[in-house]
Amino acid sequence: MSETNKIDEIVDFPVHFLSCEIGIIKPMNADKDLYNIEIPIVPFELDDERVKTSIRLDWIDFGDKTITELTNTAFIFPVNPEEGYIEGSIYLRSAHNPVDVTRIDFDNLTDNILAAALDMRILFEFEDIGFKNIDYTLNARLRIK
What we know:
Blueprint: E1 23-27, E2 35-40, E3 44-46, E4 49-51, E5 54-60, E6 74-76, E7 87-92, E8 95-110, E9 113-122, E10 134-144
Parallel strand pairs: 1-10
Antiparallel strand pairs: 1-2, 2-5, 3-4, 5-7, 6-8, 7-8, 8-9, 9-10
């Protein structure tokens, strides 16, 4: 956000906006050793505008597990800039706001959809968009691609 558009007051982000649609988990490369996840957020109204965005997570390393072997497993991740961190962001108020995912708990796999709980910190203050940083656990369903 440019200096002229800077928000003066920092408020709590309305976390009820973080309701998600079915996301996607897929390999990032032919070796299938790194993955990405994209979780669309249900559109919402903010600043008198309809917002359509998603949480995007890249460079996820699940070790030697394939996608179908992720059921009933958990993974811990460091935060940026430590090696092994997940590159994450959510686009909001004309800015890519960093998302640090520190844990992913995978549950069951049903009809090619993997249930997951993602512990994250959304760094809204990084881009100074008027919201405080939040710690949040997002419960998502991820379609395997």
